[in-house]
Amino acid sequence: MLSVLVAKRLVSRVCQESLRPAVVELVTTRGYKGEAPDDSRGDLIEIPLPPWTEKDGETMDIKKRRLLFQSRKRGMLENCILLSLFAKQYLNTMSEHQLRQYDRLINEPSNDWDIYYWATEAQPVPDVYTGEIMDLLKEFTKNKDQEQRLDAPNLEYLDKGSQ
Questions:
Q1: Are 91 and 67 in contact (CB under 8 A)?
Q2: If DSSP codes are grouped into helix, strand and coil, which group holds residue 64?
Q3: What mean pLDDT do residues 28-42 have?
Q4: CB under 8 A, 24+ apart: contacts of 131-140
Q5: pLDDT recorded at residue 4
Q6: Model's pTM, two decimal places?
Q7: Which residue from 92, 95, 126, 133 is spatially nearest to 109, judged by alpha carbons?
Q8: pLDDT digits (tens, 9 = 90+) for 1-20
Q9: What domain of life does the UniProt record list for this protein's source (predicted)?
Q10: Nearest Cα to 91, choosing from 49, 133, 40?
């Protein structure tokens, strides 16, 4: 009986060890280092991002639909909720100039945390993103009406106003 228990524990431990990744703490980046100090680790893989370019020839309706989707599908849940609710409230009333500002804001920075920190005023906004849209986003982020913002709205609901 004792040998059966020892065998089960041994097999269980071997199985658990085989599921662990062989390389621990291999960090990859997408061409963005932010404020992190240089660490001379040779295990970093630098993948340059293509530069952001404005999409020419896009109708206002198509641009709004694309921005609506991109507001919802972010790299982090906090921005998914924040930007999709912001788009729900403001996207359909934005001018062409404001749409271009919003497009650049959500698509040019390669790190979603930067957008979040700027919107919550945890970090200063770079001059290139300062403008009407960033001011609206900062004000929206303050949530003065104390709305419950626990989840992003449905895409169907967001799309009603653009049809």
A1: yes
A2: helix
A3: 56
A4: 131/101, 132/98, 132/101, 133/94, 133/98, 133/101, 133/102, 133/105, 134/101, 134/105, 136/86, 136/90, 137/86, 137/105, 140/82, 140/85, 140/86, 140/89, 140/90
A5: 63
A6: 0.63
A7: 126
A8: 656 665 566 656 655 554 54
A9: Eukaryota
A10: 133
